[in-house]
Design goal:
This protein is an alpha+beta fold. The chain has one domain: Peptide Deformylase (Alpha-Beta Complex). Helix content is 19%, strand content 30%. The chain has three helices and seven strands. Strands 1, 2, 3, 4, 5, 6 and 7 form a seven-stranded antiparallel sheet that branches. The longest helix is centred in the first third of the chain and has 19 residues. The protein is globular, with a radius of gyration of 16 Å.
């Protein structure tokens, strides 16, 4: 029987705002968390016709650990393979700052045009303990930086909080449409519970 997987937690859950702790040993518990993260990503995706689960961070399942999983091929929804990055660190970012759409399993229905660097260098461990250094660009950079933010209690909406024209939602055809900032974003207690 398949073990029950932890549900994706959503705003305003305070666990999303905690800084995650470093993984000191890649043991069975860590590997189980990674399996749950991958299953939760794929389960979520099955319920969201127009969306792709590109990545997930451990805090999104309520695990306060520095672990992210990233889909191997973000252009192919039928490819269900993910790579786990443990204790990922941004060594450096470079290139132009680009604004592009981001969504988040933990911030339901809201999307945003978020500024992020075009390229990054990332250091992390794989599940076998091997240390890797990655050079990323484009959407992969955006995805990994978004997930590392989660490990520090930061959500994508924090980068665009005061940008009235940066928030969107999906319509029933799967297209992104602007939202009314004053009505839906500015004083939304699900997004900004501490205000």
């Amino acid at each position: 029987m398949k073990k029950q997987c932890a549900p994706v937690i959503v705003t305003p859950d305070p666990r999303l705002r905690q800084v995650s702790t470093k993984v000191t040993e890649i043991d069975d518990e860590v590997k189980d968390i990674i399996e749950q993260m991958i299953r939760a990503s794929l389960d979520w995706e099955k319920e969201h016709e127009f969306e792709l689960s590109a990545a997930l961070a451990a805090p999104q399942l309520g695990f306060n650990r520095r672990i992210i999983v990233v889909r191997e091929d973000m252009n192919e929804k039928s490819n269900n393979n993910f790579i786990a990055l443990i204790n990922p660190v941004v060594i450096k970012t470079e290139g132009r700052i680009l604004r592009d759409y981001e969504g988040c399993l933990s911030v339901p229905t809201i999307y945003g045009k978020v500024p992020r660097p075009a390229k990054a260098r990332i250091k992390a461990q794989l599940t076998d303990g091997t240390e890797v250094k990655l050079k990323t660009e484009g959407f992969l950079t955006r995805t990994i930086l978004h997930e590392i933010d989660h490990l520090d209690g930061i959500l994508f909406i924090d980068h665009i909080r005061d940008k009235k024209d940066a928030f969107y939602k999906l319509d029933n055809k799967g297209d992104l449409v602007p939202v009314d900032y004053e009505k839906e974003i500015k004083n939304n207690k699900n997004l900004w519970p501490d205000d």
